[in-house]
Amino acid sequence: MAAVDPTDPQSEQEMGRIAFWLAPDDLRWLARHCCCGPEASDEDRDRCGRIRFRASAALHKQGLTD
Ligand SMILES: [Zn+2]
Question: How many CB atoms within 10 Å of residue 40?
Fold first, then answer.
């Protein structure tokens, strides 16, 4: 897993990403919530892990981890 890189708006845009604002409580929920059932594909598990990792990184960056 890659280290947490500081967000660079220019490079994020080059990767085709868009900004996504969430309240800290929603980020905490997202960071901990895995809904992958036993039938989930590897692609779904990868996506889930990526999203939860980024939610957690966003909280960490703001000093909001607990
Ligand atoms: Zn999941």
Answer: 14
47-63: burial string, b at 16+ Cβ within 10 Å, e else: eeeeebebbbbbbeeee
Ligand 1 centre to CA of 12 (Å) is 24
What spacing in Å lies between the alpha carbon of 56 and ligand 1's midpoint? 14
Helices (H), the chain: 9-14, 24-32, 42-61
pLDDT per position as a tens digit, 8-26? 889 889 999 898 899 999 9
pTM of this structure:
0.75
> Residue for token digits 């409580």?
25
Handedness of CA 1, 56, 49, 16 (dihedral sign): negative
The first and second tokens of residue 45, run together, are 């598990």
